[in-house]
Structures are given as structure tokens and as C-alpha cells.
Amino acid sequence: MHGAEKAPGASGIPAAPGMAAATPNTPDASPRLEPALLRPSRRRVWAAAHHLPATLQQLEPRLLMAADVVYALNAGGPGFTDGNGVVWVADAGFANPNAGNFTASTAQPINLSDPSVPAGTDAQLFQTERWDPSSGEDLTYSLAVDNGDYEVDLYFADIFSGTQGVGERVFDIVLEGQTVADDFDVVAAAGGGFTGIVETYSVAVSDGTIDLQFLHEVENPALKAILVRSVAVDPVDPPTPNVIAPYIDLNGFLPGIDTDTTFVVGQGPINVTPPDAGLADGDTDVVSLTVTVVGNPDGANETLDADLTGTNLTKAYANGVLTISGVAAFEVYQDVLRTITYDNTASPADGSTRTLALAASDGEL
Fold first, then answer.
1. What is the CA radius of gyration of the chain?
2. In 3D, which of 217, 210, 180, 5 has the Cα closest to residue 103?
3. Exposed e or buried b for every residue in 288-323, given b needs 16+ CB within 10 A?
4. What is the arithmetic mean of pLDDT over 30-34?
5. pLDDT tens, 89-129?
6. End-to-end CA gap in the chain
7. Would 277 disulfide with which of 137, 273, 287, 325, CB 3.0-4.6 Å?
8. 336 with 291: CB under 8 angstroms?
């Protein structure tokens, strides 16, 4: 069993002093707003899998070219931009929700000397993982892509103290219905525990989806990251631009992409996004961020705001919608995202649960 690996806790945000903590996914049954739960939920814009023409470079050490990347998913970890300019996003929302909803992390250093690991790779990619318990469905990913040829890089390292020996964690890897690695042993392949290794597989896609499965043999499958790169473009058709939609994750290191918090009438505005909320965009600047009070039951009494100090952005609020505009790097918008506040001055206030929908745009998707 994999029970010794640390699974994440519930995904609620602690309430401010004097306020009750929100219970994840549990609406307030009271008709009064004492307290009422706010449920900010990110409306994710799907990352379209278009790509630039590029020739895969096999170097020693390998060089990772950001322009080739179609998907860069950090399994069990947050979004970030690595030293090669690749924008990694959290894999929550891509993995099968009925399996693999367990993550773990380590502060132990990772050996990155294996030549399969691209030069400039950040060790943090190997320090978080998504692992799949033996109960429930197998861990799967289904990634929408244009038909064509791709290389799929799977990042592995065994970071669990209980499986540091050869034969203690073994699983099968199935890509597009074909077993590409039978009885894959992470420690044996990497040459030891806490050692990074990247397994690369070529695949020709004709159904618009890259399907990945990790099947149990011994212990539980555990994955650190997935990177999908385009390796060919139809020479007859002009290349399609690499268009990646902005990605918002309100839950930081915790599973899922949404978060909950608590608002108490009469105590003033509260911050509704956690300090580790993430926003990333892989191919261009962000041009807008909108936050909507769904339904807006208390009308003009409900307000949203954000701190734009030090930016060139503008903001406007009307009819339950906060719109933040201006061309800026995604890091700037991420800082603003973390400052969003909600207030309600209605007396009495409608006591129903609120949902806040967030969406970012880069002007392309």
C-alpha cells in the first residue's frame, strides 16, 4: 500500500480571525448570511493544442525548446516558468478525477545528472507527484491535440522512503492503447531513489487525443510531470500558431483548482483568492481578467475590487462583474489575482452561497 505517502488535506481557505472556516464543497444551509460561504471557482479556458513548426533537438545534454511544447503539466505541483522558458501548469483538471487524486512532495534534493533530463530542468518538477492508490480507477490523462506526430516526455523520480529499492514500485505505461513500458521500475530505470529520469515516447495521433494510462503492478504508479512536444508539421498546410489559453489555479499546491472562503456581513471586505493562487500563459501576455459574482443576488450592494498598485492595468466594476484590463505579463496578472476582494453591504443580505467565476484572456483564446 502507498498509505505512508502524504495525501493533501481539504482544500478550504482558513477564515480570518473570528470567522468560521469554510468546509470544502459544503454549502451553508442557513438562509441567513451568518456566515455565508463564497465559492470562488475558476472557469478554466481549455488550452488548445496548436503548435509551431519545430525540429526536435536531441543533444547531450538534451535541450528543451519552449517553442515545441504543446502541454507542460506539473503533476501534483503548481504552475511556474522554468529556466528554459517553458510554462508549466498544474495537472489538476487534466487527470482522471476518479483516480490519482493523491499528491505528495519532498524537500529532499533530486539528482538530475541522468542525460535524459533536459539541461536547465528545475528540480521542483521532481519534488511533487501525483500517485494513484490501488482502489478506484487507474490514473489516466486525455490531452486534446491536433492530429500529427508528437513526443511525450514522462518525468519520474521515486521520492517515497518506502519504495527506494528495485522492484518496490512497478507499473505499466500505456500510450494510445499500446503498452510502451511493461513493468516499469522507476528506481531501476533511474539508478536509485530521489533521482530524476525522463522517459520519451513517440506517438502519431489520428483521433485528436493523446491518451495515457498508468496501470498497477507493484505498489502504486507515481508521476512527476508530462511534457508533450510537436515534432512535425504537415508540409502542405501552413503551420498553426502556438496558442495556449491562460490557466488559473486558485488552490495552489492542493488538489483541484477551486477554493472556498467565508464572508461575514458587517465585517468589511475579505480577500477571496489565496496568496498562492496561480495564473499562467505560455505564449503571450495577458490582456484581461474578469471576476463575476454569479447571479449577483444583492445587486449593487455586492462589490469586487483588486489592488493594481505598481501596474499599468485599469479596472471597472458594474453589475457584479470586475474587469481588469491592460497588456501585461502573466506574472503581473497573477499578483493582481491574489488581491481580489469581495464585500456586501446589503441589510439584510441574501444568505445564499455565492459563486465567483474567474476568466483570463490573452486576446487569442
1. 22
2. 5
3. bbbbbbeeebbeeebbbebebeebebebebeebebe
4. 26
5. 888 777 777 775 789 999 999 999 999 998 889 999 999 99
6. 43
7. 273
8. no
Interatomic CA distance for residues 258 and 319, integer angstroms = 23
CA angle centred on 69, ends 65 and 70, rounded to 5°? 170
Q: What is the mean pLDDT of residues 331-336?
A: 92
Measured CA to CA, the distance from residue 190 to residue 96 in angstroms comes to 27
Counting every residue written for the chain, the total comes to 365
Question: Which has more confidence, 3 or 256?
Answer: 256
Q: What are phi and psi of 153, to 5 degrees?
A: -100, 125
**Alpha carbon distance 180, 49 (integer Å):** 23
Mode of pairing for the β-strands spanning 354-361 and 36-42: parallel
Q: Which of 35, 40, 126, 116 is nearest to 82 (CA)?
A: 126
With contact defined as beta carbons under 8 Å apart, do 282 and 69 qualify? yes
In this structure, the number of other CB atoms found within 10 A of the CB of residue 351 comes to 16
- Annotate 92-124 with b (16+ C-beta within 10 A) or e (fewer): bbbbbeebbbbbbbbeeebbbebebbbeebbeb
Compute the distance between CA of residue 207 and CA of residue 209 in angstroms, rounded to an integer: 6
285 burial class (0-12, 13-18, 19+ CB within 10 angstroms)? middle
Q: Tell me, what's the pLDDT at 224? A: 96
Measure CA 254 to chain center: 10
The angle subtended at Cα 199 by Cα 125 and Cα 171, nearest 5°, is 95
> How high is the pLDDT of residue 277?
82
pLDDT at 284 over 80: no
pLDDT digit string, tens, across residues 172-185: 999 999 999 999 99
Segment (H or E) for 101: none
Q: Is the pTM of this model over 0.90?
A: no
Sign of the dihedral defined by the CA atoms of residues 316, 318, 322, 328, in that order: negative
Specify the higher pLDDT residue, 17 or 144: 144
Residue 43 sits at φ, ψ, to 5 deg, of -90, 100
